[in-house]
Amino acid sequence: MKSLTKYTTIFFITVCLGALLGQYALPTVKGLFKEPAIEVGNYQHVGITDIDKVKIYTVDWCDFCAKAKEMLDKHHVKYIEIDIEKNPQGLKEFEQLSGVGFPLIIIENMLFRGFFEGPIKQKLIDSNIITA
C-alpha cells in the first residue's frame, strides 16, 4: 500500500508541474524564438531624415541596447542615441512609438522592437548605410 501512495503522489506532483510549466514556461520559451517585431512606416516625426537615418532608444541597464550600439559602432554607422531615462523628449517619442521594450531601433522606414542582428544588418545593407 505504501508503494501505491508513493506512486500516486509522484504522479500528482508530475501532473501539477506539467500544468504549471505548460501554462507559464511554454509561452516564455516560445518568446525566445519569436520572429523579430518589425514595423514599416514614416518616422520623420521623430527625426529620421535623409541625413539622420538611424535612431536608437536605449536605457543604461539594457544589455541588448549595448549589443545593438556595439554592432552599429563596429560598422561605423552614424546614429542618434536617445536614453529615455535621461531625455524627457526622447521618452515622449518612445511612448508615441508604443515602446515597451529595448532597444527600439529605427532605420529609415523600419522600426525594430528589440535587437535582431540579422534583420537589422540586412536593413543597413539594403539602405546602403553599410556594405555587405
From TrEMBL:
Coiled coil: none
Glutaredoxin domain: residues covered: 54-109
Recorded superkingdom: Bacteria
Residues spanning the membrane: none
CDD domains: NrdH (cd02976)
InterPro entries: Glutaredoxin, Thioredoxin-like_sf
Name of the featured protein: Glutaredoxin family protein
Organism: Pseudoalteromonas haloplanktis
Taxon lineage: Bacteria, Pseudomonadati, Pseudomonadota, Gammaproteobacteria, Alteromonadales
